[in-house]
């Protein structure tokens, strides 16, 4: 009996030791999912997409061209575009805020601005069929890079990534972007990660001299072994993607 008790005690000790080892290893495996490059700045960018009634598209753009100064008096506009491909009768614009409290203050001030309400909002809202917004941050390795040339077109590419955040897919995604950018196939303006809206979503805003130049550069990139390898690695974390070709409006700071 004594030998049996000793054997049972030893068996229990081994089981407990293995259980603790399993828990430690599980924690070590899970830890990288919640760690990694983190957003260090309060500055965020609000993406807004408006859908316009087809027969009101020209009128909406004209009104916005005339009255956008009433809006930019309150906060910074990064860019304003009409969607040429990837969505009909749409405009897309990006607004920069230093904090959520600043944005709340801006929205409160706009609600009390009679010129903004009477000259723009009351006329523009009946022209729209829907509005959508997302709050985004620049990913830690990106910054806003304005094109050196004026004119051109922009492409907004949106990637729906698998859950886990940049700590999981960030390195592979960064490699895919930089292998396109470094040889000059495209110029990245900014890489953004959603905070509000559809989660695990990343947007890359690219600049090209024109649609034909974009087509030529993409044709070259698809024949580059470095790009192919980087994209192949990145798509392991990808669930879906879509894009829009954007034409800057005359009043867009990015134009």
Structural class of the secondary elements?
A: alpha+beta
Mean pLDDT: 87
Shape: globular
Largest sheet: 8 strands, antiparallel, barrel
Any idea of the CATH topology of the largest domain? Alpha-Beta Plaits
Helix content: 40-55%
InterPro entries: Dimeric_a/b-barrel, NIPSNAP, NipSnap_domain
Pfam families: NIPSNAP (PF07978)
Protein name: NIPSNAP domain-containing protein
Domain NIPSNAP: 45-143, 154-253
Topology:
Layout: H1 2-34, E1 44-52, H2 57-72, E2 76-85, E3 90-97, H3 100-111, H4 114-124, E4 128-138, E5 153-161, H5 166-181, E6 187-196, E7 201-208, H6 211-221, H7 225-234, E8 238-248
Antiparallel strand pairs: 1-3, 1-4, 2-3, 2-8, 4-6, 5-7, 5-8, 6-7
Summarize the structure.
The chain is an alpha+beta fold. It has two domains: 42-136, Alpha-Beta Plaits (2-Layer Sandwich), CATH 3.30.70; 139-249, Alpha-Beta Plaits (2-Layer Sandwich).
Structure in words:
- With 255 residues, the chain is of the alpha+beta class.
- It has 2 domains: 42-136, 2-Layer Sandwich (Alpha-Beta Plaits), CATH 3.30.70; 139-249, Alpha-Beta Plaits, CATH 3.30.70.100.
- Helix content is 43%, strand content 30%.
- It has 7 helices and 8 strands; from the N terminus they run H-E-H-E-E-H-H-E-E-H-E-E-H-H-E.
- The chain has an 8-stranded antiparallel barrel, surrounded by 4 helices.
- A hairpin with a 4-residue loop joins strand 2 and strand 3 (90-97).
- It is globular, with a radius of gyration of 25 Å.
- One of its GO terms (cellular component) is mitochondrion.
- This is NIPSNAP domain-containing protein.
- Belongs to the NipSnap family.
- Pfam families: NIPSNAP.
């Amino acid at each position: 009996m004594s030998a049996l008790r000793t054997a049972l005690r030893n068996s229990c000790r081994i089981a407990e030791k293995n259980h603790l080892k399993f828990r430690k290893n599980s924690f070590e495996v899970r830890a990288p999912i919640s760690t990694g490059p983190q957003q260090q700045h309060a500055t965020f960018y609000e993406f807004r997409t408006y859908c316009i009634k087809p027969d009101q598209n020209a009128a909406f753009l004209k009104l916005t061209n005339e009255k956008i100064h009433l809006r930019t008096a309150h906060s910074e506009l990064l860019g304003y575009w009409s969607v040429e491909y990837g969505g009909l009768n749409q405009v897309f614009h990006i607004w920069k805020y230093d904090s959520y409290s600043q944005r709340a203050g801006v929205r409160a001030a706009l609600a009390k601005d009679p010129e903004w309400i009477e000259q723009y909002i009351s006329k523009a809202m009946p022209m729209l069929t829907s509005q959508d917004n997302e709050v985004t941050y620049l990913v830690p390795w990106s910054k806003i890079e304005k094109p050196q040339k004026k004119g051109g077109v922009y492409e907004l590419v949106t990637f729906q990534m698998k859950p886990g955040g940049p700590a999981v897919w960030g390195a592979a995604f960064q490699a895919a972007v930089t292998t396109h950018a470094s040889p000059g196939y495209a110029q990245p303006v900014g890489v953004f990660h959603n905070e509000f809206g559809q989660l695990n979503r990343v947007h890359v805003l690219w600049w090209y001299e024109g649609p034909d130049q974009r087509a030529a550069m993409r044709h070259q990139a698809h024949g580059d072994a470095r790009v192919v390898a980087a994209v192949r690695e990145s798509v392991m974390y990808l669930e879906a993607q879509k894009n829009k070709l954007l034409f800057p409006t005359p009043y867009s700071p990015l134009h």
